[in-house]
TrEMBL record:
Coiled coil: 1-28
Keywords, sorted A to Z: Coiled coil
Name of the protein this chain belongs to: Uncharacterized protein
Stored PANTHER family: ENDONUCLEASE_EXONUCLEASE_PHOSPHATASE DOMAIN-CONTAINING PROTEIN, REVERSE TRANSCRIPTASE DOMAIN-CONTAINING PROTEIN
Amino acid sequence: MDRTEENRQEYKELQHRVKREVSKAKQKAYDELYTRLDTREGEKDLYRLARQREEREGSGTVRLQGEEVKKVQEFKYLGSTVQSNGECGKEVKKRVQAGWNGWRKVSGVLCDRKISARIKGEVYRTVVRPAMLYGLETVSLRKRQESELEVAELKMLRFSLGVTRLDRIRNEYIRGTAHVGRLGDKVRETRLRWFGHVQRRETIRTWHVNLV
């Protein structure tokens, strides 16, 4: 084997070695990135990058029937607040406030000691909870936002049953007494029901198009 052939073989081996090292470095970087994205700091980095990209790409204008559509940070659609960054914190706070408004309207019944806890629970599920759940089937709730809703609900139930946190009564007992399930479970139930409606709608729409 001449010197030229040896150099060619060494070059190929070196090239393969460099590719392997680059592949290992990429995999390590991806693993570190995925690990960081699972943390709170990673979520902040992701939102910051998405916001920067949106600012760069969103500099153009959108026109509808010749009129420029104004770009806003949030807007209301069918009674729900939609934020440009994909968050839903304002909508959750709005739902909590709507729940308290509904609770105050029927507080005369909910706080009446002569009325049983079961009846109070039925009134709560009929009047208050629908106001809190309105539109949430299409909202991607985080754990802290779901917790915010449940904390507000438990406050209402405690006021209705005439107990406070100082009484050290467990949340499960409060819910069981009023016959009110976890709000998070109800949100998931309504979300699945809404998903079923969407699935059936697409099927019916396909049938309609085929028939037409």
